[in-house]
Amino acid sequence: MKESRNWKRRGFYSESILVKLLQSYGYEAIRVPVNTHSLNPLPDVIARNDLYLYAFKVRNASYYAYFPKRQIEKLFAFLDKFIPSPNQNKYVVLAAHFGKKWRFKVVEWADRNKLPKQIRILKRDKGNFDLKTGERK
User: Fold this and answer.
1) Listing from the earlier edge strand, what are the strands of the sheet with 101-107?
2) CATH code at position 28
3) What pTM does this model have?
4) 42 is in which domain, residue-wise?
5) CB 3.0-4.6 Å disulfide test: which of 25, 46, 53, 121 passes with 96?
6) What distance in Å separates the CA atoms of residue 130 and residue 128, rounded to the nearest whole number?
């Protein structure tokens, strides 16, 4: 039980740090307090920068972070059902927090129907999303 609480605290901490980081770069950002096992298609963090909207799934890890297919599908479902704007203005972003380092990976709309069982981000990965500019690399 205690391990579960510590795990939740780590997630809450990383989500809160990401919101502050996004705000420091000029994004409007909020943390969405929801149970991980919820059937509702909600992201951990929602951010907006001009016309662009980002749905983040956040993981706190030491060397690698896994993002299961089902959770990624929920992010696409959220953006598809609740955000009435073109897909080119909406992004699914996986965010791995490795202590002081962040790694971000955008999952493309074109890949939505051919997702692997899970996506892994390693600490040594470069990522494909620049938080400062809001653009894919």
Assistant:
1) 28-31, 45-49, 52-60, 90-98, 101-107
2) 3.40.1350.10
3) 0.88
4) 2-136
5) 121
6) 7
